[in-house]
Design a protein that fits this description.
about 425 residues
Length: about 425
């Protein structure tokens, strides 16, 4: 536990947190020696199915975070695990497990799935309390919801061992591509954050772009392109209800919810000029935020809703700007070489992620909201469209290699852990949900 907390403290020192007292401290995290925490996650015992599957999902979640090193189950020798009793610590010390998860599944009379689990600090030989009352925790759900149970357990373990909120019980909406390039089909799709349970929300009759989650509700907004123009939509994921926000004379781009879910900011292009507008979703009133003879687009709110970050070429090339939510106080924050696009504010408020193009190479990077501390996290032929995990520690984006199709990737905020998402198909424009209720 101590190891992970020290690791996160080091990341904060590197400029990943906003603590003013540490803003002047510089540590090159790309050179940092990070040692993920060895953790043992045996199959959950019990009378109900899913014990092995739940352990595997937790293992995959924690491993993909880059902060944990799940140990090979073939090395486990303690076969007498009981969720209500201390384990044989010597057996787990021998394989250098520093943390151990013990779980049990059962079904009650009405068929509901119960999952009990406990978390142990192996070397101190103490149970890590999972509730205010101490001890382990019990989660109850329907059996077909076992994957969400595994994600919630992953979040509990992540939070207890790092002191940070997890991000595993969340979903990602994205654009799934199929068909030949000359007749590409772009469907709205959704999946668990680990790529499981993918499904399609639209049939592909129209081309869809830039879906974005509301932080307040289970709604997404997206742009759909038809032969007669572009429209903005709201889609309620829980009910499947869809409504049109409006059709506009020109092209509309890049919608984004305000943090309270009551407004959507987006861009409208008319006669070669693109500016940013915001719509009140209750009254449908439209307000113009920028009025510059340039391309102003990709607005994204700060977590408190007081500011927006956007990109504009008013200075001669696409750069990142920040303005107050009413459109006042517009000022540039990026001054590096290259073209900056698709900025998005971290849910923690400490960083802004962006796409950067230098020559024929693309990057995903982050900088502080004042433009300082720019760091490049990824470099490839085409990396674009970052979206933050709900805890602000991981970014998802899409990557395309020459001649290939776009795929979804993730990178942690240190840039150390970069990996492809398990979703097997062509995909772009990902948008991460907040934690599910």
């Amino acid at each position: 536990m101590l190891l992970i907390r020290l690791l996160l403290a080091a990341l904060c020192l590197a400029g990943l947190a906003t603590a003013p007292a540490r803003a002047d401290i510089t540590v090159d995290v790309n050179q940092a020696a990070v040692q993920p925490l060895p953790i043992a996650i045996p199959s959950f015992s019990g009378s109900a199915p899913y014990g092995d599957d739940i352990a595997k999902v937790i293992t995959a979640n924690l491993q993909r975070s880059g902060l944990f090193k799940p140990l090979d189950p073939a090395t486990f020798t303690d076969n007498s695990l009981n969720v209500n009793q201390p384990p044989a610590f010597s057996a787990w010390k021998q394989i250098n497990a520093q943390a151990l998860i013990i779980g049990r599944t059962s079904l009650d009379a009405d068929g509901r799935l119960h999952v009990d689990f406990a978390l142990w600090d192996v070397f101190s030989q103490k149970q890590i309390p999972l509730t205010a009352a101490g001890g382990g925790m019990t989660l109850t759900s329907t059996p077909d919801n076992w994957r969400r149970v595994a994600h919630k357990i992953s979040d509990q373990v992540y939070e207890k061992l790092t002191g940070e909120k997890g991000y595993f019980d969340s979903r990602v909406v994205f654009v799934a591509e199929s068909g030949p390039k000359a007749k590409r089909v772009r469907r709205l799709a959704i999946m668990d954050q680990d790529g499981a349970n993918p499904s399609y929300l639209t049939e592909g009759a129209t081309q869809v772009f830039t879906p974005r989650f509301s932080a307040a509700t289970q709604e997404i907004t997206y742009m759909s392109l038809r032969d007669d123009g572009a429209s903005l939509y709201l889609f309620n994921i829980e009910t499947g209800r869809q409504e049109t926000l409006g059709r506009f004379k020109g092209m509309v781009f890049a919608p984004r919810f305000s943090p309270d879910g009551n407004q959507v900011a987006f861009s409208i292009e008319e006669r070669g000029n693109t500016d940013i507008f915001v719509m009140d979703l209750r009254s449908r009133a439209l307000k113009r935020l920028t009025a510059d003879p340039s391309i102003d687009t990709s607005p994204a709110y700060s977590p408190d809703g007081s500011k927006l970050v956007f990109n504009s070429d008013r200075g001669g090339s696409p750069q990142i700007y920040v303005m107050n939510a009413d459109g006042s106080g517009q000022h540039r924050i990026s001054f590096g070489e290259g073209r900056y696009t698709t900025p998005v504010w971290s849910p923690r408020g400490d960083l802004i992620a962006f796409t950067k193009q230098t020559g024929n190479t693309f990057h995903i990077g982050v900088m502080r909201p004042d433009g300082s501390g720019e760091r490049i996290l990824t470099t490839a032929y085409l990396d674009e469209g970052p979206t933050w995990a709900p805890n602000g520690r991981v970014l998802m984006f899409f990557r395309q290699q020459p001649g290939g199709s776009p795929r979804l990737w993730t990178v942690d905020v240190s840039g150390r852990v970069e990996q492809a998402e398990p979703y097997p198909g062509a995909a772009d424009d990902p948008a991460w949900s907040p934690l599910l209720n």
